[in-house]
Description:
It is a single chain. The protein is 47% helix and 11% strand. A 7-stranded parallel sheet has the order 3-2-1-4-5-6-7, sandwiched between helices. The chain is of the alpha/beta class. The chain has 14 helices and 7 strands. The protein has helices at 13-25, 35-47, 80-90, 94-102, 143-162, 177-189, 193-196, 205-221, 229-236, 239-253, 263-275, 294-300, 317-335, 339-342, and strands at residues 57-64, 105-112, 123-125, 167-173, 258-260, 283-287, 305-307. The chain is globular and about 70 Å long. Helix 5 crosses helix 10 and helix 6 crosses helix 11 (263-275). The protein has one domain (57-328): 3-Layer(aba) Sandwich (Rossmann fold), CATH 3.40.50.
Amino acid sequence: MSWIKNPTPIRNALFKEKALERQSQLTKPAGSLGKLEALAVTLADLQQSEKPSADNINISVFAGDHGIAEEGVSAFPQEVTVQMISNFLQGGAAISVLAKQLDAAFEVVDTGILTELPAQDGLVIQRAAAGTKNSLHHEAMTQTQLDIALQAGRNAALRAVKNKADIFIGGEMGIANTTTATVLYCALLELSPEEITGAGTGLDDAGIRHKTKVVAGILKKHQDCGTDALAWLRCAGGFEVAALTGAYLQAAQSGLPILVDGFISTAAALCAVRIQAEANDYLLFAHTSAEQGHRKTIESLNQTALLNIGMRLGEGSGAAVAVSLLRSACALHNDMATFAEAAVAGQETA
């Protein structure tokens, strides 16, 4: 798996400089479009283009089941995972609706759900196993299974590159995966379970207290992993979280900007950055999740989120909602007139 540490592209600084210069010449007071200005400049730099674009969106939703669900850490039964995959493919889930609205390329990747679905349009099957093991008592997966899951994500990013995507969005589905993500946050950021553990799919206070104890138990069980992101993915991660990590690494290596969704996706982004620090340059964080602790992780990566609207659904839905901001930023940057073009007097200088 030597590919996971391949370098990201060397970018020509000229595109960023030209974007900044254009922003200074558009018919508006400097800074009046707020973060939209910086967003357009960032996309111009990452895409190495004078005309950044968010027209061609690729969305891959990775699905996997978790052995830790045996510990009663979710408000929903585990069979919901496979049921929701069918819902994705039939167009009834939130991310399916949003993908259609965006005219995005959309696929679901089975990285290891308990009940295997038959081959069908929109479903990519690249299974590591029928769910992970219970990480409270065992290592969640073998090294071979981790490699398969990482490669599943890599392949999805390569498909997006082949499709000439402007932006890659990774989503996820897997009952109990907020517990898995919480463990990764605690381990890699050296935070306590109490600081991060939240309600997930809707646990009550007693459920959150139980989940917190389970997270603490997993951390103790695998404490020898230290702060090694790959070791934690193997010992306490999920197949879909590992696939997201692989997708983010390959997208960054391919120079493809990534719009990161919420709590689970950000755990994978954190793993990716710990494996390859330069991947952070290609991450755009769509929103601050209502799930406890998400903001701390974004801040730890010296990033800020585009939106804060109380979302915590997952699936890639928050990222899909944020695409409209990217599209607005690009349209304003590319299509507004300059002061010279509009024959408008610019700001006077002393």
